[in-house]
């Protein structure tokens, strides 16, 4: 029997990459998992769509007591070339999606007297590369949001934490980043190997487990030691 047997989880961005690894790991640990992403017709930037999707999951699987926000857009662009549309799109999905998810799941968590919320940030907050200022700003915002929500929901038995992945071998990253970039990042890490989606999923699995019931408002950096906080 898995450690999450009988639990219901909702994961945004669960169709691919790190989100898919998280959804798979939570399923392996016994949870029933619903995924919210564009592939399943849910735009996480649309509050009504998220609310309706979570309500559907609650009807079919039961009220979610685990929620993970992993959906994100990441478009490398020098800040001087950044327009208002790209800035707002990045915030709507990366941070607005988290807000929409939290609003949708917290009532059920409060009714259950327990809940686990994990927001997927980024190690770029700690080791910021050029061309991602807008993305880094949103991922920093998720860390602040986790800290603030931890204070608001702790008395309800709900923990809120963030995971900050380092460079991870997702299909998208492998397709868009030059081979030399992987070598450079790996050379800066204490653990000299590439990060895998399963590394991030393991961190999330811990934070949503019973063993992490006294951990909230924290950010877990999972980057092989490239950054140190």
* Low-pLDDT residue spans: none
* Run of helices and strands: EHEHEHEHEHHHE
Domain module count: 1
Describe the largest sheet: 6 strands, parallel
Q: State the CATH superfamily name.
A: NAD(P)-binding Rossmann-like Domain
Number of DSSP helices?
7
Cα distance spanning the termini: 35 Å
Strand order of the largest sheet: 2-1-3-4-5-6
Number of strands: 6
Radius of gyration: 17 Å
Q: Would you state the CATH class?
A: Alpha Beta
Describe it.
It is a single chain. This protein has one domain: 3-Layer(aba) Sandwich (Rossmann fold), CATH 3.40.50.720. The protein contains seven helices and six strands; from the N terminus they run E-H-E-H-E-H-E-H-E-H-H-H-E. The protein has helices at residues 17-28, 47-60, 84-112, 133-153, 171-176, 179-188, 197-207, and strands spanning 8-12, 32-36, 66-69, 115-120, 158-165, 219-222. It has a six-stranded parallel β-sheet, sandwiched between helices. Helix 1 (17-28) links the parallel strand 1 (8-12) and strand 2 (32-36). The model has no long low-confidence stretch (mean pLDDT 96).
Short description:
By secondary structure, the chain is of the alpha/beta class. 45% of the residues lie in helices and 14% in strands.
Q: What distinguishing features does this structure have?
A:
7 helices, about 230 residues, alpha/beta, Rossmann fold, 6-stranded parallel β-sheet
Could you outline the blueprint of secondary structure elements for this entry?
Elements: E1 8-12, H1 17-28, E2 32-36, H2 47-60, E3 66-69, H3 84-112, E4 115-120, H4 133-153, E5 158-165, H5 171-176, H6 179-188, H7 197-207, E6 219-222
Parallel strand pairs: 1-2, 1-3, 3-4, 4-5, 5-6
């Amino acid at each position: 029997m898995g450690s999450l047997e009988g639990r219901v989880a909702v994961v945004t961005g669960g169709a691919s990459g790190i989100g898919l690894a998280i959804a798979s790991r939570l399923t392996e640990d016994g949870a029933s998992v619903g995924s919210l992403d564009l592939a399943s017709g849910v735009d996480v930037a649309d509050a009504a769509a998220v609310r309706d999707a979570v309500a559907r999951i609650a009807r079919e699987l039961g009220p979610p007591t685990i929620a993970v926000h992993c959906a994100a857009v990441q478009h490398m662009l020098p800040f001087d070339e950044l327009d208002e549309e790209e800035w707002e799109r990045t915030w709507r999905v990366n941070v607005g999606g988290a807000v929409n998810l939290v609003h949708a799941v917290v009532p059920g968590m409060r009714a259950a007297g327990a809940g686990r919320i994990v927001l997927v940030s980024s190690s770029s907050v700690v080791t910021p590369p050029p061309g991602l200022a807008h993305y880094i700003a949103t991922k920093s915002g998720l860390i602040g949001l986790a800290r603030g929500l931890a204070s608001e929901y702790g008395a309800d038995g709900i923990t809120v934490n963030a995971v900050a992945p380092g460079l991870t071998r997702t299909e998208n990253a492998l397709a868009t980043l030059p081979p030399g970039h992987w070598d450079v990042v790996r050379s800066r890490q204490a653990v000299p190997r590439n990060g895998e989606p399963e590394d991030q999923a393991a961190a999330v699995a811990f934070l949503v487990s019973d063993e992490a019931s006294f951990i909230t408002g924290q950010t877990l950096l999972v980057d092989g030691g490239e950054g140190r906080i």
